[in-house]
Design a protein that fits this description.
With 127 residues, the chain is an all-beta fold. The chain has strands at 18-22, 25-29, 47-50, 53-56, 61-64, 67-70, 75-76, 86-87. The strands form four sheets. Strands 1-2 form a two-stranded antiparallel sheet. Strands 3-4 form a two-stranded antiparallel ribbon. It has a two-stranded antiparallel ribbon with strand order 5-6.
Length: 127
């Protein structure tokens, strides 16, 4: 099917030409007037304002006082735009901050403490 209408907008802080390539055709636009976008003053509760855009935090992060924070060890967040992280089930934890899937919740084991002061070196015997 042939493309009859193409509608888009170009946003740039510099009044320069824009080049757009679609399949085998290239279009060059040199604007004669530039209309700045209206200033954004408020965003949805799960986004924060950055460079006049409302931005969601990525997976593994959550919105915390107007900025994105990584989910703490022991929690995860699988979706964008979260305002909190989900805690792993009892007995499970994540190994790093910023985990983004329940599958990153894992069990841990306790390694017994080794007393290096009272150890004996056994001779290596080759037979």
């Amino acid at each position: 099917a042939a493309l009859e209408d193409l509608t888009f907008s170009i946003s740039t802080s510099k009044k320069k030409r824009a080049i757009i390539s679609l399949r085998s055709a290239t279009f060059t636009f040199a604007p004669t007037t530039v209309t700045p976008a209206e200033q954004v003053s408020t965003c949805a509760s799960n986004t924060y304002l950055k460079d006049n855009l409302c931005v969601e935090c990525p997976e593994g992060y959550y919105l915390n006082s107007g900025a994105c924070s990584a989910c703490a060890i022991g929690s995860y967040n699988p979706s964008t735009g979260a305002t909190s992280c989900t805690t792993c089930d009892s007995g499970l934890t994540t190994l790093a901050k910023g985990s983004n899937a329940v599958t990153q919740c894992t069990t841990t084991c306790t390694v017994p403490q080794v007393d290096n002061v009272n150890t004996t070196t056994l001779p290596w015997v080759v037979r």
